[in-house]
Design goal:
Layout lengths: L3 H14 L7 H10 L21 H10 L11 H14 L2 H13 L4 E4 L15 E5 L2 E8 L10 E7 L10 E7 L5 E6 L8 E12 L3 E2 L5 H17 L10 H10 L6 H28 L7 H24 L24 H7 L10 H12 L20
Parallel strand pairs: 1-4
Antiparallel strand pairs: 2-3, 3-7, 4-5, 5-8, 6-7
């Protein structure tokens, strides 16, 4: 059984063999993965040691103290938080060995081809088709709101393989090569002026059946693993006290006493306390993950994340007065990551509007919490047993 002392020894051995100051970044990250110190709870040979998930903090602290490079997790969040756990749960051994190492080191960026123009909140209504042709599947359709598609080498994709089945049962799950012929990525310019999102058109894209995760028609079950992990990765990020959106507004409050009013003070206190509660709840959620897969609690965390971001950014704009109306840069860019704290208050205010949409809309997540956490009666659904091809669209 791997313990903290053994992990510290392994970290020391890695640092001795690959001193961070003299080792190229990618070489160090590859060596870390091969030493089982990437994600210690993964199996041996796949970046881990089969150790308790809680011991990852021992590794991270030791490497950070030595000045070792990290894998820039914000840039590759979709791969780390969504693709990797799904590959681990449903991928063949060949796929795990092929994809997990370059995914973790950041050499290959991933994106998520789930939402469609007619299947956002109701994702199971998706219409992208995958038709079997020998050892391949031929995929045609359109996806939308695809973060990092302009950077991605690979994508996790769900497509309809049997239109005669009800909408949840005729879906299959694939790994798609974003460089293949027939994949077209177009930018979607946002309220912020940037285009971190994209729409993706798939025309005759051939995907080997070996790149299917889970059984044919079992894509919805596989997708639930992705979605649950996605909500944890968005809403359950590890933050220090006053980390995230509450940090900039708290600093402004301390540095600009001329802006203070009694009403703003009360609102800031309320939001500061709520942010700290959410941060500690996220710590508890990560501790629960040690014992198994994420559950519906991640949906509650993501709900809180979206609401707090929007309320805090609104308070910050009000606190700044006329300065809060300024915007730093409307340049059309295609960024590699979302940087909430590296931009101005105007950016935070506009960008946070998307938090209640991305990663599952707040309305859908409220239903999940109501039904799966609180045990309330499910909303009536009249399309559960109707073949997808017969649904009104």
């Amino acid at each position: 059984m791997t313990d903290a002392a053994e992990l510290r020894d392994r970290v020391s051995a890695l640092l001795d063999a690959h001193p961070p100051a003299g080792t190229p970044r990618e070489d160090f990250l590859r060596a870390r993965f091969d030493a089982g110190l990437a994600w210690v709870h993964y199996p041996e040979g796949l970046g881990g040691l089969g150790a308790p998930r809680s011991l990852q903090a021992v590794v991270d602290a030791g490497l950070a103290a030595a000045g070792a490079p990290d894998n820039d997790p914000r840039r590759i969040g979709i791969g780390l938080g969504m693709a990797a756990p799904t590959l681990l749960a449903y991928g063949s051994e060949e796929l795990k060995k092929r994809f997990l190492r370059p995914l973790w080191t950041g050499e290959e960026v991933w994106c998520q081809l789930f939402s469609e123009p007619g299947a956002g909140s109701d994702l199971a209504a998706l219409g992208t088709r995958a038709v079997r042709d020998g050892d391949d599947w031929v995929v045609d359709g359109q996806k939308v709101w695809t973060s990092s598609a302009h950077l991605a080498r690979w994508a996790i994709l769900i497509a309809r393989t049997d239109p005669d089945q009800p909408k949840h049962r005729g879906i299959s799950y694939f790994v798609c090569d974003m460089t293949d012929p027939g994949v077209e990525v177009r930018p979607l310019r946002q309220l912020t002026g940037e285009a971190e999102f994209n729409e993706v058109f798939l025309t005759g894209v051939r995907i080997p059946d070996a790149h299917r995760l889970g059984g044919v028609g079992e894509g919805w079950k596989v997708a639930q693993t992705t979605l649950m992990n996605e909500r944890v990765s968005i809403g359950g990020q590890r933050l220090p006290r006053e980390g995230g959106m509450i940090g900039p507004v708290s600093r402004t409050w301390r540095e600009r006493p001329d802006l203070r009013t009694h009403d703003l003070h009360q609102r800031l206190l309320d939001l500061w306390v709520e942010s700290e509660v959410a941060r500690l709840a996220g710590e508890r959620l990560r501790q629960q993950l040690v014992a198994g897969q994420p559950g519906p609690e991640g949906s509650a965390m993501k709900l809180a994340f979206a609401r707090l971001n929007q309320e805090i950014s609104g308070l910050e704009v009000e606190l700044l007065g006329t300065d809060g109306l300024l915007y730093d840069d409307w340049t059309m860019r295609r960024p590699e990551l979302v940087d909430f704290t590296g931009r101005g208050a105007g950016y935070r205010y506009l960008r946070s509007k998307g938090n209640s949409i991305e990663g599952g809309t707040s309305e859908v997540l409220l239903n999940i919490v109501a039904e799966r956490v609180l045990g309330l009666p499910a909303e009536p659904r009249n399309d559960k047993d109707i073949p997808w091809k017969d649904l009104a669209r």
